[in-house]
Amino acid sequence: MLLSQYHRGMIEAGCDEAGRGCLAGPVFAAAVIFPPDYTNPDLNDSKQLSDKKRHELRSIIQQDAISWAVGSCSPEEIDKINILHASFLAMHRAIAQLNPAPECLIIDGNRFDPYYPTEGVFPLPHQCIVKGDGKYLSIAAASILAKTYRDDLMDELAVEFPQYDWLSNKGYPTEKHREAIRVHGLTPWHRRTFKFE
Question: Which of 30, 150, 169, 172 has the fewest CB atoms found within 10 Å of its own CB?
Answer without folding.
Answer: 172
